[in-house]
Each structure stands twice: as structure tokens, then as C-alpha cells.
Amino acid sequence: MIISACSLIVIGACSSSSSGGDEPKLTGPKITVGIKVDQPGIGVRAQDGTVSGFDVDVAKYVARHLGTDPSNVSFVEAVSADRETLLEQRKVDFVVASYSITDGRKARVDFAGPYLATGQSLLVRKSNADISGPDSLNNSDWRLCSVKGSTSAQLVKDQYAKSVTLQEFPSYRACVDAMREQAVDAVTTDEVILAGYVAEQPDLLKLVGSPFSFERYGVGLVKGDPRHAKVTEALRAMVGDGSWQKYAEANLGRAGKPMPPAPTVLDTP
């Protein structure tokens, strides 16, 4: 049994809801979801404690499919390095936090999905004319920032460690702040995440090059969670009934980048 949300440090539920005002309130069990709180368009926390973003909308849709009203969903921060631990320690029911499906992670948790496909890209200051894409990462003096525990940081270690200096921060917001202060030269993670920061600061930041990886986001679940099939069913319904498109249009496709298409949800991603 998942521990009660009241025993956690709760970030706060999003003020918006995908349900209409006239729909009956569901009475399912309370659900706690791990999300990112520093990724505009994906998952972000406002000063008043409310959260919003594509992952938040997905989480609330899944919760409703499981019989839980969105008002009974609590959100806690799930930084990249802690997502598996949150699940293994039963501190969350599931994780919807730009969580890329990888073989290594599947050894520790189960995934439902994918519910979004994207690729790793580069974010630089608008005044930077030297970094134009991954092919230009050939200067060992360049400082490239990513988040500890992320697939983005691992890819840099595997492919570009001899070319650039990788700096790992606890969050992408910290990376972006460091770049704004010229403490790092570029930030790398998935394009849909970086586009949110460009939309926030279009006069300062820009995306460069084309994506150089393929990432599939999944809903992370405890190994053997009996709700896996139901969550998969929810994601398929979300794509099929137009909700996925609505959430994507409301949250993604920023910074002049095309909105990613809806993926095919698999029984075993």
C-alpha cells in the first residue's frame, strides 16, 4: 500500500482540471505522483504551490482512469536521480516526470507508455554563435551542463566526454541559471524541456541543431504494480479521445519547434 500523501512534503495539486465542472466527483483512493517542478511546459511549480504542464495533465488523466478524482491527486518533486528510489520506497504511486524509458531503469521499475517521444538537444545563449549543434562540441574548454541521473548527462559522458567539460547540476533550472550567469556555455536535455525555457526567455536563449538522441517518456511504476495494464489503457484512451492532442497544444510546441506527434502506446514499452 502506498503511504499517505499527508506524510510527504506535498508540492501541491494543479489548480486546473481536465474534468468539466458538471461531472460527478470520483471517489477512488488518493494518489501521489512524482513530477518535475522546474520544467516549463512539462512540469513546473508556481509560487503559489500549484503545478502545471503536460506531465501534470497526463498524471491527472491516468488518475481519473483509475477512479481517482484529480482533486485527490498530490504531487511531489521527483528529481532525476531520485525517481527509482521514490518508487522503490513506495513514496509515490507512480512517476510522470520526463522519465525516459531505458533498459537500465527497467531493471528497477516498470514503465507504461510511451506517452511522449522527443530527442536530446542543446540550449545556448542567443549571443553564442560558436555552438551550433552536437557536431560543434569539439572544444574541451566549453562547459556543458546537464542533470545528474539523467539520460542526457549519460549520453554526454559516453559520446562527448573527451570534447567538452560536463557539469552536472541537480536541476535544469539550475543549469539554465548558470548559463544565464555565463558559468556554463550550454545546457543539454530533451528538446521539449529546453523549448520551455526558450519560451520563458526568448530574448536570451535559443535552441541549436537537431535532436541527437531518441527518448520515449513513460509512466514509472513499482515493479509488478497490478495497475500497469490499467495505466496503459488510460494512456491509449488519452491518445484516442483527443485529450493527448489538447494537452500537447496547451503545453508543448514552444520556441518555434514543431509539436511532437502522439506515440503508439505499447503493452511492454
Q: CATH architecture of the largest domain, please? A: 3-Layer(aba) Sandwich
Query: What helical percentage do the residues reach?
Result: 25-40%
What strand line-up does the widest sheet have?
Answer: 5-1-6-13-7
Separation of the first and last Cα atoms: 25 Å
Mean pLDDT equals 88
Q: List SSEs in N-to-C order.
A: EEEEHEHEHEEEHEHEHEEHH
- How many domain modules? 2
Instruction: Report the count of strand segments.
Output: 13
What is the CATH level 1 assignment of the largest domain? Alpha Beta
CATH superfamily of the largest domain: Periplasmic binding protein-like II
* Coarse structural class: alpha/beta
Shape: globular
Low-confidence stretches: 1-21
Describe this structure in words.
The protein is of the alpha/beta class. The protein folds into 2 domains: 5-16 and 29-118 and 216-251, 3-Layer(aba) Sandwich (D-Maltodextrin-Binding Protein, domain 2), CATH 3.40.190; 120-208, 3-Layer(aba) Sandwich (D-Maltodextrin-Binding Protein, domain 2), CATH 3.40.190. It is 27% helix and 23% strand. It has a 5-stranded mixed β-sheet with strand order 5-1-6-13-7. Residues 1-21 have low confidence and may be disordered. Keywords: Signal, Transport. It comes from Herbihabitans rhizosphaerae. Pfam families: SBP_bac_3.
